[in-house]
Design a protein that fits this description.
This protein is α/β, with parallel strands linked by helices and 120 residues long. It has helices spanning 11-20, 35-45, 61-71, 86-95, 107-119, and strands at 2-7, 26-32, 49-53, 77-81, 100-102. The chain has a five-stranded parallel β-sheet with strand order 2-1-3-4-5, sandwiched between helices. It starts with a strand and ends with a helix. The structure holds magnesium ion. Magnesium ion binds next to loops.
Length: 120
């Protein structure tokens, strides 16, 4: 099983992920509702994969990713966002995120991307 941490201020997104990943090789080991929490929990949990929302109250997902990756350069973080602006995508790449998935997401697309990132 691949251990996944979901970061999103929307509980609905988390619930959708739980449903989407049922009966797959991915297990959600932690759910965080803010960037600050994600940074703290990442150190403890060391998940194989993180899905990271961008817009959250307080610290946004780009900043949280930047901080996690500066301490753990091997962290596999996929941005999950309804934002599709070029500069956001560029910024995510610059930080070292392993890709971008747009909400609302489709099961096959999400699974495919998660599998690619896990394989490296
Ligand atoms: Mg959000």
């Amino acid at each position: 099983m691949a251990r996944l941490m979901v970061v999103d201020d929307s509980k609905i997104v988390y619930m959708n992920m739980v449903k989407l990943l049922q009966d797959t090789e991915f297990e959600i080991v932690h759910y965080c509702r803010s960037g600050e929490e994600a940074i703290e929990v990442y150190k403890e949990v060391r998940p194989d994969l993180v899905t990271m929302d961008i817009i959250m109250p307080g610290m946004d997902g780009l900043e949280a990713s930047r901080q996690i990756l500066s301490e753990f350069p091997d962290a596999r973080i996929i941005m999950f966002s309804s934002l599709a602006y070029d500069d956001t995508i560029e910024e995510a790449e610059k930080i070292g995120a392993k890709g971008f998935i747009y909400k609302p997401f489709e099961k096959e697309k999400v699974l495919c991307r998660l599998r690619e990132v896990i394989k490296g």
